[in-house]
Amino acid sequence: DIVLTQSPALAVSLGQRATISCKTNQNVDYYGNSYMHWYQQKPGQQPKLLIYLASNLASGIPARFSGRGSGTDFTLTIDPVEADDTATYYCQQSRNLPTFGGGTKLELK
Amino acid sequence: QVQLKESGPGLVQPSQTLSLTCTVSGFSLTSYHVSWVRQPPGKGLEWMGVIWTGGSTAYNSLLKSRLSISRDISKSQVFLKMNSLQTEDTATYYCARDETTEGDYFDYWGQGVMVTVSS
Q1: Which residue of B34, B67, B69, B104 is the best one to mutate when testing the A interface, meaning the one whose CB has the most A CBs within 10 A?
Q2: pLDDT tens readout for residues B14-64
Q3: Cα separation of A104 and A102, whole Å?
Q4: Omega cis (within 30) before A80
């Protein structure tokens, strides 16, 4: 299985930039695409797709969210952070059978 | 619009079998794969398995011996059965649509059903 590693938590101030990282133990690139996706989950809610294929914004997601990376290193950036962005963020790979990172809880300073 | 809704018992006794149903609308099970994902209280997401458009299945290697996923296309329902439940299987269980046109990710999720394993 491909293992995805995320830092457990991140604290940022309102209006600042949040950068959440996800590292994999195997390359998730295949034929020019990076099979890495990002989700946001708020307490008591189901996960919500933010970014697919590393850098593509999902429908209805504000442009404050962006993703980048390739191979084994990926980041999700939120700029600027708003109060409503407090949530846990998960990365997920689909190069092989799906696996998720452990999640990064974004909090406000 | 696309919707998925999980249903099933909220409480299951240890060693018993869990049976859940995911009822979908707004898309066909012959056009999209459907996966099951679970989340223990306060913990992260774990992919459990998938039923592909052709009816084949794939499972998380850690759950494979206990898990079965099937479907009824005419009823737009996907079923999960998992046996030999233990307290560690207490979790919220989600079904999710698997978008594979570009990349194989979960674009729609059900609201989830909380399952407690306890005597």
Answers
A1: B104
A2: 999 999 999 999 999 999 999 999 999 999 999 999 999 999 999 999 999
A3: 7
A4: yes
